[in-house]
TrEMBL record:
<dbReference type="Pfam" id="PF07927">
    <property type="entry name" value="HicA_toxin"/>
</dbReference>
<keyword id="KW-1277">Toxin-antitoxin system</keyword>
<keyword id="KW-0255">Endonuclease</keyword>
<feature type="compositionally biased region" description="Basic residues">
    <location>
        <begin position="23"/>
        <end position="34"/>
    </location>
</feature>
<dbReference type="InterPro" id="IPR012933">
    <property type="entry name" value="HicA_mRNA_interferase"/>
</dbReference>
<keyword id="KW-0346">Stress response</keyword>
<keyword id="KW-0540">Nuclease</keyword>
<keyword id="KW-0694">RNA-binding</keyword>
<feature type="region of interest" description="Disordered">
    <location>
        <begin position="20"/>
        <end position="49"/>
    </location>
</feature>
<protein>
    <submittedName>
        <fullName>YcfA family protein</fullName>
    </submittedName>
</protein>
<comment type="similarity">
    <text>Belongs to the HicA mRNA interferase family.</text>
</comment>
<dbReference type="InterPro" id="IPR038570">
    <property type="entry name" value="HicA_sf"/>
</dbReference>
<keyword id="KW-0378">Hydrolase</keyword>
């Protein structure tokens, strides 16, 4: 079963990402050690798409270096 959007958001916040807002159901997260922001779209209760999960994992991994 895929994770929910809210779970991906929690992972990003725990890794030090900051939500800088967005339009509608989009949220932009930035991290001081990452070059580019990551955008998560969807309502918190929606299932995350596989590409969203991969993006979050890659962004967290990149920022830990």
């Amino acid at each position: 079963m895929p994770p929910k959007i809210r779970e991906l958001i929690e992972l990003l916040k725990k890794a030090g990402f900051v939500d800088r807002g967005g339009k509608g159901s989009h949220r932009n997260f930035t991290h001081p050690h990452c070059a580019k922001p990551i955008t998560i779209s969807g309502n918190p209760g929606d299932d995350a798409k596989p590409y969203q999960q991969r993006q979050v994992e890659a962004a967290i991994k990149e920022c830990k270096k």
